[in-house]
């Protein structure tokens, strides 16, 4: 097969709600050639966003069943699609570029792939953040939410952890990418938390480290100490990950810091911080050591929050020596309620982009 199959994959990915825009340099095709063989690329184009067995895929597409499940399992191991075994049965579904194929390349990442992603990243986000809903929402440090402010379940780290039955800690793909291009991060690397509603689902996974619920809480606590922002899927139900992100590596936060995309277009945040000028002693810890999005500035006698940049993560609050900073829940008319589920997110993103992805449902 020629490059035609890779252009076909690119078109399929761009037809999905998350998108996969064309670049002037053709870097997206080089990315796909790095990730897929021609045969894998061809099979990917026949997949859907909903789970199917190998037999169902064979019947629907007319592909021979012999060897199909083995190929799909191998593609799952390679992060080219999502594969899960429940009992004796395997299920498979298509992945978008982000959140999906990119994040699932962790075990295959090398310098070439990192450099290709660095080149393609600005192209991808220039399209992605033109429409909502945002990919991720901010989970504030729960201890910094006052008792007078009722947090909804999807706003609370503990609610997501308590709903989980299996947990896995993995290295951060963004930190790995930056390290490979000569920009290593000095913060903890194994800070990506995968969560599943099924007990024991990660036991045979070759990726990451299986941890307990208590260890998941400890990972989040250490991430907070290290000044990392909790981010999760921008949905109300069905959270399967919590990323812990820094300003120097995270592709989401870098979109704010380096590309100048408005914070409200990049992440969905439900809170904002305020500084009490009378209690602030101008130590600068909040701005210099904690804020990951440049949302704090110095004034003549104090520091203040820049509302348009604040993402309400609460990191600035936990180290304030005079407790001069507080989290405030956004007024109801200013909150963006996340879609109910991932499927609802796909539907709304597709509607906002004006695309028809019905053939891949």
Any chance you could write out the topology, listing elements then pairs?
Blueprint lengths: L3 H12 L11 H9 L2 H7 L9 H8 L6 H10 L4 E5 L2 E5 L3 H5 L9 H18 L7 E4 L17 H7 L2 E5 L2 H8 L11 E5 L12 E3 L1 H13 L3 E5 L7 E5 L5 H7 L5 H4 E2 L2 E5 L9 H6 L5 E3 L4 E3 L9 H4 L6 E5 L12 H12 L8
Parallel strand pairs: 3-9
Antiparallel strand pairs: 1-2, 3-7, 4-5, 4-6, 5-8, 7-8, 10-13, 11-12
Key features?
Arc Repressor Mutant, subunit A, alpha+beta, 15 helices, single chain
Account of the 3D structure:
It is a single chain. This protein is of the alpha+beta class. Among the domains are: 4-126, Orthogonal Bundle (Arc Repressor Mutant, subunit A); 135-259, no CATH class. The protein is built from 15 helices and 13 strands. It has helices spanning 4-15, 27-35, 38-44, 54-61, 68-77, 97-101, 111-128, 157-163, 173-180, 213-225, 251-257, 263-266, 285-290, 315-318, 342-353, and strands spanning 82-86, 89-93, 136-139, 166-170, 192-196, 209-211, 229-233, 241-245, 267-268, 271-275, 296-298, 303-305, 325-329. It has a seven-stranded mixed beta sheet with strand order 6-4-5-8-7-3-9. Strands 1-2 form a two-stranded antiparallel sheet. It has a two-stranded antiparallel ribbon with strand order 10-13. α1 (4-15) packs parallel to α3 (38-44), α2 (27-35) crosses α7 and α7 crosses α9. The longest helix has 18 residues, at 111-128. The protein is globular and about 70 Å long. The model has no long low-confidence stretch (mean pLDDT 95).
């Amino acid at each position: 097969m020629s490059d035609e199959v890779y252009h076909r994959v690119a078109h399929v990915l761009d037809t999905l709600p998350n998108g996969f825009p064309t670049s002037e340099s053709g870097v997206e095709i080089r990315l796909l050639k790095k990730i897929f063989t021609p045969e894998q690329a061809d099979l990917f184009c026949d997949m859907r966003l909903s789970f199917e067995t190998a037999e169902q895929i064979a019947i629907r597409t007319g592909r021979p069943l012999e060897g199909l499940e083995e190929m799909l399992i191998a593609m799952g191991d390679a992060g080219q699609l999502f594969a899960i075994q429940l009992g004796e049965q395997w299920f498979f579904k298509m992945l978008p570029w982000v959140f999906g194929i990119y994040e699932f390349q962790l075990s295959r990442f090398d310098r070439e792939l990192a450099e290709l992603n660095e080149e393609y990243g600005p192209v991808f986000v220039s399209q992605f953040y033109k429409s909502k809903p945002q990919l991720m929402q901010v989970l504030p440090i729960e201890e910094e939410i006052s008792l007078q402010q009722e947090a909804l379940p999807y706003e609370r780290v503990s609610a997501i952890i308590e709903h989980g039955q299996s947990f896995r800690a993995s290295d951060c793909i963004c930190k790995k990418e930056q390290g490979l291009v000569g920009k290593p991060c000095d913060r903890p690397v194994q800070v990506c938390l995968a969560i599943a509603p099924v007990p024991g689902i990660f036991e045979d996974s070759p990726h990451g480290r299986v941890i307990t619920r208590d260890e998941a809480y400890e990972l989040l606590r250490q991430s907070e100490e290290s000044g990392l922002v909790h981010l999760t899927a921008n949905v109300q139900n069905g959270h399967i990950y919590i990323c812990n992100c820094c300003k120097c590596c995270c592709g989401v936060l870098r979109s704010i810091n380096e590309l100048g995309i408005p914070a409200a277009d990049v992440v969905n945040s439900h809170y904002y911080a305020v500084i009490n000028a009378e209690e602030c002693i101008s130590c600068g810890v909040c701005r210099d050591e904690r804020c990951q999005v440049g949302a704090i500035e110095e004034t003549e006698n104090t520091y203040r929050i820049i509302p348009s940049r604040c993402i309400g993560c609460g990191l600035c609050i936990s180290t304030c020596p005079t407790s001069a900073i507080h989290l405030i829940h956004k007024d109801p008319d200013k909150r963006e309620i996340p879609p109910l589920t991932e499927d609802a997110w796909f539907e709304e993103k597709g509607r906002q982009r004006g695309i028809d992805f019905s053939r891949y449902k």
